[in-house]
Amino acid sequence: MNLLSVSNLNVNFKMKKQELAALIDVSFTLNRGERIAIVGESGAGKSILGFSIVNLISKPGYIKSGSIKLENKELTKMNLRQLQEIRGKRIAMIFQDPMMTLNPVLTIGDQLVETIRSHTKITYKDARNIAIEKLHNVQIASPETRFDQYPHELSGGMRQRVIIASVLLLNPDIIIADEPTTALDVTIQAEILQLLLAICRDNGVALVLISHDLGVVSKVAERTLVMYAGHIVEEGPTLEIINDPQHPYTQGLLNALPQMTLPGQRLNQIQGSMPSLTERPTGCAFHPRCPYATEKCQQEQPSFIHSGVSSVACFLVEDMVNDFANQDEEDR
């Protein structure tokens, strides 16, 4: 049984005059201990998908249809009290800005202890010992000292370590990390990613890493979902997607990485921009930016087709797969 199963998920934003689709028929699974990534530009729907998993979509957004199951439990049908039992305890979230999570007027220790005691019936002393142990586990020096400090007294990287420690307090099955290293410099980014990877491996925790950077994803995730305008357009093993990207959008994301250009050259970029919810084009949403788009792409939405070990929603790939199959038949 999959640990997490998302099936045909549709998330809309209900405006005064219209409903806008933010996620469209999104489906994927996550196994226990597996690490997956969700990548795409800003506006692709990555964070909305992450928030949807624990039903944290704020109005006017709402889950219109579809299923989100944690093992055999349907999360979309749960009331607030039931969801509070899941949030933090079974599924925990790490946000890109730790100051949005940490309370500036409470010490680090008070916040960690409060988290533990809100879900368990243990003494303050025991909760304090657990908190200090978790701070030690995320490689925070002098955890007893940090326990009594306020968030503003810590560096950005240290605060992110505190957040990781906080999500480990209740031993969750899944961690959803939404751009957890965006606000950090490159050196600290690498340290945080290695820490997150080690923690998930050592504790058998499944990870959903949300990122716009395929370079970051390649270091952590076993499997990658590429999102564009609310759709998943490619899914497969991370190394396969990086070494042999199938969808033109995935190819564009990889070509835009800084390491894909020589020093002194202009960075590559995908022409155009992500469509807004009010300007979603017909057919394949990527067609206005795609160098291979045809009239069919403008009119119809492509279905997923298997290409090697990946699944891709693209008519170009579909034609190539069909041509290869036909050629194979003729050779026989």
TrEMBL record:
Family matches, as CDD domains: ABC_NikE_OppD_transporters
Any single GO BP term: peptide transport
Keywords of the record: ATP-binding, Cell membrane, Membrane, Nucleotide-binding, Transport
EC primary class: translocase
Entry's EC annotation: 7.4.2.9
InterPro entries: AAA+_ATPase (IPR003593), ABC_Ni/Peptide_Import (IPR050388), ABC_transporter-like_ATP-bd (IPR003439), ABC_transporter-like_CS (IPR017871), Oligopep_ABC_C (IPR013563), P-loop_NTPase (IPR027417)
Cellular location(s): Cell inner membrane
Primary localization class, coarse: membrane
Gene Ontology cellular-component terms listed: plasma membrane
An annotated Gene Ontology molecular function: ATP binding
Gene3D superfamilies documented for this protein: P-loop containing nucleotide triphosphate hydrolases
Membrane topology label: Peripheral membrane protein
Family: Belongs to the ABC transporter superfamily.
Protein's name according to its UniProt entry: ABC-type dipeptide transporter
The species this protein was found in: Marinomonas ushuaiensis DSM 15871
